[in-house]
């Protein structure tokens, strides 16, 4: 805690971990009012503020030198990204925290904003409608652990200099509506990176093809959600998109028509079946996507990383592509079949690749066993694996029986 009398430090530039307590001999938000020289301010435990008037007395909007602002509450979410059963939020608590945050609006010069643990039904009014406070210098926004918010604020797309937006853990958001990108003619005009993490119930993203937005977006990360479809507006308008990262995106069955993407990662997408029409794709990482059957119209592919310790054979789509480099991580006995080279059943799936590095794990060593193949050197193939290695390292009898078909 910070003792009372703190307001006398009027030349303070940086203040971290200021805990918002309202009783005893400790400083309250009132004492932040005179600190007009602050550049960095980190406020925590704002759920303890009993009235919005205390927040207003902090006079954040008058701190013209403030560049970085952190507003935090104690999170009400568990490890699964859902509201803890014992941390239920009443309507009265929601209304109170909304009033408090409405009075904590930043000054126009702030460049970095992070909000943690906020549990209001909607984000502060100064984020929903940026006309209330012209945050024209804001470049980075992090929103973490939004326990009760049901939608992303429409006002963000109007911020003229916003370059990086990250939202993590917002279990009540199921739909991202058209207003998120349609509230202005130049929506997200300078946004460079968008990351949406652990929005575990998110299913739908509305963005029609004719709605122009995110023309400078270069990197998009979607993680741990239930998104059924990537919106058509993204592919047609995000003309600068270079990196697309999809991890644990459930229900997504296809990815197609991203002309500018050069690097794509799909990891743990259980329903993904096809990737098509990404003509400039150079690097493709596929990890644990067992239903993926089709790779088409990716003629520029240079590097393919394939990681799956459950597959019994190389995917059939390997016959339809010709990357220059292949890096493979698989189970031990499949690696042995690859090591068989021209006499093995998988030869025609990787023989056209110029350079192959394939590995199987042993304990914590992910690259204990290897197969190295170079097509241009008389199809040279090198490996440290043998049949005795297989039978010593295989613990599952089913795998032994399958292996016997190739020995």
From TrEMBL:
It comes from the Eukaryota. Transmembrane segments: none annotated. Pfam families: LRR_R13L1-DRL21 (PF25019). InterPro entries: LRR_dom_sf, LRR_R13L1-DRL21. Signal peptide: none annotated. Residues 29-168 form the R13L1/DRL21-like LRR repeat region domain. PANTHER family: LEUCINE-RICH REPEAT-CONTAINING PROTEIN 57 (PTHR47186), NB-ARC DOMAIN-CONTAINING PROTEIN (PTHR47186:SF49). This is R13L1/DRL21-like LRR repeat region domain-containing protein. It comes from Triticum turgidum subsp. durum.
């Amino acid at each position: 805690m910070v003792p009372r009398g703190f307001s006398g430090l009027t030349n303070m530039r940086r203040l971290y971990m200021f805990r918002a307590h309202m009783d005893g001999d400790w400083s309250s938000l009132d004492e932040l009012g005179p600190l007009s020289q602050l550049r960095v301010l980190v406020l925590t435990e704002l759920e303890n503020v009993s009235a919005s008037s205390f927040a207003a007395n902090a006079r954040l909007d008058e701190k013209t030198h403030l560049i970085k602002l952190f507003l935090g509450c104690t999170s009400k979410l568990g490890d699964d990204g859902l509201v803890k059963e014992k941390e239920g939020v009443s309507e009265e608590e929601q209304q109170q925290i909304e009033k408090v945050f409405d009075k904590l609006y930043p000054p126009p010069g702030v460049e970095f904003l992070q909000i943690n643990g906020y549990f209001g039904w909607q984000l502060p009014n100064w984020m929903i409608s940026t006309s209330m406070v012209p945050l024209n210098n804001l470049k980075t926004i992090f929103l973490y652990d939004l326990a009760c918010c049901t939608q992303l604020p429409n006002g963000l797309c109007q911020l003229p200099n916003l370059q990086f937006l990250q939202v993590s853990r917002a279990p009540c958001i199921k739909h991202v509506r058209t207003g998120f990108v349609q509230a202005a003619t130049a929506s997200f005009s300078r946004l460079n990176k968008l990351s949406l993490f652990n929005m575990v119930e998110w299913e739908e993203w509305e963005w029609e093809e004719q709605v122009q937005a995110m023309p400078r977006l270069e990197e998009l990360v979607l993680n741990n959600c239930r998104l059924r479809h990537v919106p058509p507006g993204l592919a047609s308008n995000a003309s600068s998109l270079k990196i697309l990262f999809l991890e644990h995106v459930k229900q997504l069955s296809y990815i197609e028509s991203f002309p500018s993407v050069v690097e794509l990662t799909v990891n743990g997408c259980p329903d993904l079946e096809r990737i098509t029409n990404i003509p400039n794709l150079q690097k493709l990482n596929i990890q644990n996507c067992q239903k993926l059957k089709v790779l088409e119209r990716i003629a520029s592919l240079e590097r393919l990383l394939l990681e799956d310790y459950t597959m019994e054979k190389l995917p059939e789509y390997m016959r339809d592509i010709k990357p220059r480099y292949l890096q493979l991580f698989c189970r031990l006995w499949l690696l042995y079949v690859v090591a068989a080279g021209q006499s093995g059943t998988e030869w025609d799936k990787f023989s056209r690749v110029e350079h192959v590095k394939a590995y199987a794990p042993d304990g914590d060593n992910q690259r204990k066993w290897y197969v190295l193949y170079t097509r241009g050197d008389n199809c040279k193939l090198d490996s440290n694996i043998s049949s005795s290695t297989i039978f010593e390292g295989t613990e599952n009898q089913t795998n032994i029986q399958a292996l016997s078909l190739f020995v």
